[in-house]
Design a protein that fits this description.
Heat Shock Protein 90, 308 residues, 5-stranded antiparallel sheet, alpha/beta, single chain, 26% strand, 3-stranded parallel sheet
Length: 308
């Protein structure tokens, strides 16, 4: 049997929701061995970091499970899409050798990276900071807020997700829109499974409850560590920045757009997806966020570098 998964014309966090219903089969533990699978990009005309990271994570997850004898990728007819995917190191993630582009410095791209360890996380955050600074005149406070948030969330990938594949991260600045989009995806146990195995949160019954909790203050699956502020702080920063954030895990999606937030039903994702869009021309004072949310005598060792 051959399975073909056709990507939509525009691949982003919203359109992926529409096709994830087809992908649920790939996460099924009873998934039987098949002849081949094809990821078909032929109709794609535009792809955002959120779409690229999620598709890359899914392809790596499927490959890791060894459910298919052969794996195929059908390229986009649109050569600009092919060029973009190459510049974002999509092909190299799957050892597809393509070297037909001239890479440019200050391109506004943070290419696909696997989060293997803490050092990789540091490199990704540093690269993103450099990319943003090279593209747009941004205040130090806003830049620190963005990079701090990214660092906190990436840290969760290799400490808490138990993913059979490494987490995938990528980003891009959009100079004309004056924004940066950051996408992070893993195929781990997800927010619900991570929290429900913790005594403090074993009352949680579904993904929606878990997502609502995970953006709360001091919520962590590691109760004896000085952790748990990452997504809470991300929520506050996104709100102050009037940006957007989507957290997808299991069968639920938490959305922030400007200052409105909501939890809606999602087809299914094995693991966690975090997608953030920051407005680079809207200032953020992260120190004000901490001062308003945490007592003066609270331990802030994890965040000292933000104010350096």
């Amino acid at each position: 049997m051959n399975h073909i998964y056709k990507l939509p014309v525009e691949v982003n966090v919203d359109t992926i929701r529409n096709i994830n219903q087809e992908w649920i089969f790939l996460f099924n533990n009873n998934h039987y061995y098949c002849d081949s699978i094809t990821f078909d990009f032929s109709d794609v005309n535009f792809i955002r970091p959120s779409g690229l990271a999620v598709v890359a994570a899914l392809m790596k997850y499927v490959k890791n499970r060894n459910c298919y004898a052969e794996y195929y990728l059908k390229e986009a007819i649109n050569k600009n899409v092919c060029s973009y995917m190459e510049r974002m190191d999509f092909y190299s993630q799957f050892k597809i050798i393509k070297d037909t582009i001239n890479r440019q410095e200050n391109s506004g791209l943070c290419e696909l990276k696997e989060v293997i360890d803490a050092n990789t996380a540091y490199i990704v955050v540093s690269q993103l900071s450099d990319v943003i600074k090279s593209q747009i005149n941004i205040s130090d406070g806003t830049l620190n807020a963005i990079t701090h948030t990214l660092g906190e969330i990436i840290d969760n990938i290799f400490h808490h997700s138990n993913s059979p594949i490494n987490g995938i991260v990528c980003a891009q600045t959009y100079r004309h829109a004056i924004e940066v989009e950051i996408a992070i995806a893993d195929c781990g146990i997800g927010v619900y499974e991570s929290l429900k195995n913790t005594p403090n949160y074993n009352y949680i019954v579904n993904d929606a409850e878990a997502l609502k909790l995970c953006v709360g203050k001091k919520i962590t699956s590691k109760p004896f560590t000085n952790a748990g502020e990452g997504l809470f702080v991300a929520k506050r920063i996104i709100t102050q920045n009037q940006g957007k954030m989507n957290i997808i895990s299991g069968s639920s999606m938490y959305k922030i757009s400007n200052i409105e937030d909501d939890i809606i039903k999602y087809p299914y994702w094995q693991g966690t997806i975090v997608n953030m869009v920051f407005n680079l021309d809207v200032p953020v004072n992260i120190k004000d966020i901490f001062d308003s949310e945490f007592p003066e005598d609270a331990v802030h060792d994890d965040f000292d570098e933000v104010f350096d």
